[in-house]
Amino acid sequence: MQIAVFSGKRGGYGAMKPLLRHLQSHPVFELSLILSDQHINENFGNTQEEVKNDFPKYSTLKMIQKNSSPDSRVDALSQMMRSAAIYLKKNKPDLVILYGDRSEVLTFALALIHFNIPIAHIQGGDTSGNIDDGIRHSLSHFAKYHFPSCDESKNKLIELGIEKETICAVGDCHLDEIYSKNYPRYEETLHSLNIDIESKFCIFLLHPDTVNNINYNKIIVPIIKYLLKIFHDVIAIYPCSDHGYGEIVDSLIKFKKNDNFHLYKNLDAPYFWSLMSRAKLFIGNSSAGIIETAAFKLPTVNIGERQKGRLRPNHIVDTNYDLSKIKEAISKAMKFNFKEIKSPYGEGGANLKIIKFLESKLLC
Questions:
Q1: Which of 47, 114, 298, 321 is 20 to 30 A distant from 96 in Cα terms?
Q2: Residues with Cβ < 8 Å from 195, sequence gap 6 or more?
Q3: What is the DSSP string of 279-316?
Q4: Which stretches of the chain are DSSP H helices?
């Protein structure tokens, strides 16, 4: 039985790695891995190279995004839709597993339903800001099986009219590798990345806000300048490929000559987690800040509305883009007592729960 898994982004791939290993070694399920978007884009580190080290056999769907404008994003998605049609005409998996709430995932889902191929969706039922909610809920309505990350998201799916028997709340998939400590020692990570940083550093990861009109050139430079004042080093990572990413990248590049500023198009998930294990602050608007930082007891500041509505652990400090408010949020986050940490996303084991549920539905 052929089970295909689609990934368009570094974060989703890192979360699903244990699932891919389970499928690869399964006595009945046969894994087909499909990549597109950021995985095949040099502007985001061409992360298929990371995938190739783990799973050498995979397919790609063409998607060339020239810049960060909305029309370039839509044009790239149309290329991917055409490439998906060509792929699905030759290959018809028995089930396709999709992760998250991104436009390339929805694009592939639209192709799948026209080929009458069943979908299993991970992380449905969540609520957040941005255009993500509409995409995520659309994917839930297209899917046959559902793997939400918490009970609240399960209840949301039921409210949306999804049949309860098709839902299995598994926790968040990112946490499997984190709680298993399946990432390098901090010293090994520094050696692999060829950097030498002091113990007091922060991680900055800001994605585009695709709903509100944000002047990134105006806000990012003061934020980074302040972070470099209060931390010895700043590790910054490129945003995702949502329209508007170019302004963020342009702002970050201005600091490349600073020896204490380390900018990466991509960090392989194990390196990312290794750095999180020693960082003093995580700041930006990535879901990693909401979902993953609790496992590391890492103070976290969430900026803006991209994650608005997403269920969050109690250590997250939310703020707007005003620098004075960000300074206050950082101070508050650094004082949190992690003995009182509460996270709704579980402590690992999500990917194996997905396998067990699929076995019960597909192999009975």
A1: 47
A2: 262
A3: -SEEEES-HHHHHTHHHHT--EEEESSTTTT----TTE
A4: 10-25, 48-54, 70-90, 103-114, 132-142, 151-159, 174-179, 186-193, 216-230, 245-253, 269-276, 287-291, 293-296, 323-334, 350-362
The two beta strands, 2-7 and 30-35, are parallel
Q: Give the tens place of pLDDT for each residue, 236-284.
A: 999 988 888 999 999 999 999 999 999 999 998 999 999 999 999 999 9
Q: Which amino acid is at 349?
A: G
Residue 231 CB-density burial (10 A; 0-12 exposed, 13-18 middle, 19+ buried): buried
Q: What pTM value is reported for the model?
A: 0.89
As given in the structure block, the two tokens for residue 321 are 């883009």
What token pair was written down for 292? 């993953």
> Helix or strand or coil: residue 317?
strand
Q: What is the pLDDT of residues 147-173, one digit of tens each?
A: 999 999 999 999 999 999 999 999 999
